[in-house]
Amino acid sequence: MASLLVRNIDDEIVSALKRRAEQKGISAEAEHRNLLTAALSEPPKRSFAEVIQSIPPVGDDDDFLPKQDE
């Protein structure tokens, strides 16, 4: 595995990273890996069925019927 060295990070950011890691009971290095992984991982692709199921129910079925000329 590769190593990554990041320079010129604001002290407040480093402190926040350490606090966040401490709250989770992990090392700052492990939290840094977790953050990079979460930020750079592609979101899981949803199936067409999942996309359709996520559409909220709005309107009535009649809203989708062709309009009759009056």
Description:
With 70 residues, the protein is mainly α. The chain has a domain at 10-38. The protein contains 3 helices and no strands. The model has no long low-confidence stretch (mean pLDDT 91).
The low-pLDDT segments are: none
The number of helices is: 3
Shape: elongated
What series of H and E elements makes up the topology? HHH
Q: How confident is the prediction overall: mean pLDDT? A: 91
Radius of gyration: 24 Å
Q: β content, as a range?
A: under 5%
Helix content: 40-55%
Biggest β-sheet strands, sense, barrel: none
> What structural class do helix, strand and pairing data support?
mainly alpha
Output the keywords.
about 70 residues, mainly alpha, about 45% helix, about 0% strand
Itemize the secondary structure elements and their pairings:
Blueprint: H1 11-24, H2 28-40, H3 48-53
Q: Summed up, what is this model?
A:
The chain has 70 residues and is mainly α. Helices cover 47% and strands 0% of the residues.
